[in-house]
Write a structure and sequence with these properties.
Elements lengths: L3 H19 L8 E3 L2 E6 L7 H17 L6 E9 L2 E2 L5 E2 L8 E8 L4 E9 L2 E5 L8
Antiparallel strand pairs: 1-2, 2-3, 3-6, 4-5, 6-7, 7-8
Length: about 140
């Protein structure tokens, strides 16, 4: 039989530790996944042209880049984060075209994948490799 104090610990603190552990799945700012720096999430709560077009495009792009990947559990669009420069300072990448967003996929096997998507001169495009991975 377990001591009363230990049973109280298990009954009170263990559930709190479990709740806190649920937050461990979040992405820290500027974390890199598949060469992409992940910034703040984009709210796709309401239907928007970017979310309605770019998420399906990202899903198709992931299938082309990583055929046979585990089933997708969730897909979230993020702003592109910051990248280290030669002095190891985190800086924004400036592009000559429109912005690029990062689609992050949580897969059924527990892994994460990322792919870039954006509207370049009005055309939706997929960018398979992030700047941290491209040659």
């Amino acid at each position: 039989m377990l001591p009363t104090a230990f049973r109280t610990f298990l009954r009170v603190l263990l559930p709190l530790a479990t709740i806190a552990a649920c937050g461990l799945g979040s992405i820290v700012p500027n974390a890199r996944i598949d060469g992409w720096s992940v910034g703040e999430p984009i709210a796709c709560v309401q239907s928007t042209p970017d979310c309605d077009v770019l998420i399906p495009l990202a899903i198709e792009g992931l299938g082309n880049r990583d055929p046979g990947h585990a089933p997708i559990v969730t897909t979230v669009l993020y702003n592109e984060g910051l990248y280290p420069n030669k002095q190891s300072e985190l800086v924004e990448i400036f592009r000559s075209s429109a912005g690029v967003w990062v689609a992050v996929f949580q897969l059924a096997d527990g892994s994460r994948r990322a792919i870039g998507v954006g509207n370049v001169l009005g055309d939706p495009m997929v960018f398979h490799e992030g700047p941290g991975r491209a040659p």
